[in-house]
Specification:
The protein is an alpha+beta fold. It is built from 11 helices and 13 strands. The chain has a domain at 2-199: Ribosomal Protein S5, domain 2.
Length: 383
């Protein structure tokens, strides 16, 4: 891939001094929709992601060719970072630059940039955070900004929340920038304390399956669920001294049910029980107990379906088809309403599972899913 980056960069910009980077996608193994509620999440960075090569310019212009999004070089000035409704992907680049400048980092010059990806887009694997961490990391390197890992994640979150306008938590950016090969990341989204936990798959494979349902995160009900959690928090703060919903415990649920509207209680129940499942999942993997971890994944999907209501017929069909075909664990991952299911499957039946699931899903939904066998990867880095 590095050879391709160098060749394309030379062809596009007539220069050979580019610096190459890789920024992974991420999959959240468990702990869904609790990152913006102060909870623990358990993602891993992926072997698929975004590649970029860049070199400094002598002016304030950004020239970027993004494969497969552009047919020609796209350009904008660092002094004019207005959103572009016709090139949504470029807004993540502009937002990342805006975040750096807003927080006092000196970026005196623009760059020439070529990018490509091996990751499915709009699939819940955080292509946006992958791009944000790529831009922030390469600018950090080119201009010697000395940004800490934690601050890179915070800057990416700022870009996503304040510039793009998606009310996401910090999990995506943190998992992308802090990933470690063959490990999952147990992250406290409140304190940003984290622990790298070995993900020993042995005779099993990590398979991500894309529903291929068209969806857009900013246009989905993601912001609605965020708002429902804020409603719950503001109500419960009258009875509990808490900053986040995830500070509550499962034994609080009976009392909480008398304080909240039934719909808001369902959302809150998912948040609190998902926190417990995430912590138990980390314990299971520390004890090399992949089967218990897989069962917790199944319970997570059921909660996301029944209490948080963010799955839908495509995700539910895919998850059940995977289990019926032999997966030991499967759950939706990402914002929901489309996107992907992450599953753990015995490697020796992987091909048969893919065939069976394709058949079931296609007959019910009308089009095929897409499969990605992935491995836990290192975070955003120079290549």
């Amino acid at each position: 891939m590095k050879t391709k980056l160098i060749e394309n960069f030379k062809n596009l910009f007539n220069r050979e001094d580019g610096i190459s980077f890789f920024s992974p996608g991420r999959v959240n193994l468990i702990g869904e929709h609790i990152d913006y509620n102060g909870g623990f999440v358990f993602p891993c960075a992926l072997s698929d992601g975004t590649y970029g090569i860049a070199g400094k310019r002598e002016d304030r212009m950004i020239y970027v060719y993004s494969e497969p999004f552009t047919k020609e070089i796209y350009s904008f000035s660092m002094d004019h970072l207005e959103k572009d409704p016709h090139h949504a992907w470029a807004n993540y680049i502009k937002g990342s630059i805006h975040a750096l400048m807003k927080h006092g980092y000196d970026i005196p010059f623009g760059i020439d940039l070529y990018m490509t990806t091996t990751m499915p887009l709009s699939a819940g694997l955080s292509s946006s955070a992958s791009l944000e961490m790529l831009i922030i990391t390469l600018l950090d390197h080119l201009f010697h900004l000395n940004i800490s890992l934690e601050d890179k994640a915070r800057l990416g979150k700022y870009a996503e929340n304040k510039y793009v306008g998606v009310n996401s938590g910090i999990m995506d950016q943190f998992a992308v920038v802090a990933g470690k090969e063959n490990h999952a990341l147990l992250l406290n989204t409140d304190t940003l304390a984290y622990e790298q936990i070995p993900l020993e798959l042995n005779n099993y494979s990590l398979l991500i399956v894309n529903t291929n349902k068209k969806r857009g995160l900013a246009d989905s009900k993601y912001n609605e669920r965020f708002s429902e959690c804020q409603t719950s928090l503001s109500t419960l703060q009258k009875a509990y001294s808490i900053n986040y919903l995830c500070e509550l415990q499962e034994n609080d649920l009976n009392k909480i049910s008398t304080l909240l509207d039934p719909l808001i209680f369902k959302r809150t129940k998912h948040v609190i029980t998902e926190q417990t499942r995430t912590i138990e999942s980390a314990k299971a993997l520390k004890q090399h107990d992949l089967i218990t971890f897989a069962k917790l994944m199944n319970q997570s999907h059921q909660s996301l379906k029944d209490d948080y209501e963010v799955t839908g017929v495509e995700l539910d069909t895919l998850q059940q088809a995977l289990l019926d075909a032999g997966a030991v664990g499967a759950r939706m991952t990402g914002a929901g309403f489309g996107g992907c299911v992450v599953s753990i499957i015995p490697t020796d039946i992987l091909d048969q599972v893919i065939d069976d699931v394709t058949d079931v899903y296609t007959k019910k939904i009308g089009y095929e899913p897409t499969f990605y066998q992935v491995k836990p990867s290192d975070g955003t880095h120079l290549i």
